[in-house]
Amino acid sequence: MNHQVTKTPRKDIPEETNHIAQQIVDAAFSVHSALGPGLLESVYESCLCHELRKRGLCFERQLFLPVIYDGVKLDAGLRLDLLVGNQVVVELKAVELVQEVHKAQLLTYLKLTGHRLGLLINFNVPVIRKGITRLAL
Predict the structure, then answer these.
(1) 50-80 confidence digits (pLDDT tens)
(2) Alpha-carbon distance 47 to 53, whole Å?
C-alpha cells in the first residue's frame, strides 16, 4: 500500500527568533567559559540571566506554566526556567547525561506554551556546544 505524508508543512522559524536563540547560545558560552562544569543548575541560571541582561534581552525566569486538563487550568507545579524575548523556551540542566525525558520535557513545554523554539542547555559538560540541544515544533 502506498502512503503519503499527511503532515501539515511547518513554517520556518522566524529570523528574529533565531537571532534570540543565537544570543542565548553566545551567553551560555560566556557562562560556561567562565565557570566550567560542576556547579548547580541555579548558579548557571543566575549567571545566564546576567549575560542575557547584558545583551539587552528581555526574559522571564521560573515562569509558572499551568496545565489545561479537562477544560480546567491546573497548577501542576510546572515552571519554565527561562522564556527569552517571549519566543524561546530555555530549559537548563547541570546533569552528567541529558536523557530523552529532558528533551521530552522541553517539547512538552513548547506544546503547552505555543512557542516553537526551545533550547536545552546542559552546563555539566567539558565543551558547552555538546551540551546544547535545539528543538523546534
Answers:
(1) 999 999 999 999 999 999 899 999 999 999 9
(2) 10
pLDDT, one tens digit per residue, over 11-29 is 899 999 999 999 999 999 9
Pair 65, 113: CB distance under 8 Å: yes
Q: Is residue 3 in some structural domain? A: no
Note whether 82 and 60 are within 8 A (CB): yes
Domain that holds residue 130: 15-136
How many domains, in total, are found in the chain? 1
pLDDT at 40 over 90: yes
The three grid cell numbers given for residue 38, joined into one nine-digit string: 560542576
| Measured distance CA(28)–CA(48) in Å, rounded | 6
CA–CA gap between residue 120 and residue 92 (Å, rounded): 6
Residue 42 lies in a domain: yes
Q: How far apart are CA 80 and CA 76, in angstroms?
A: 12
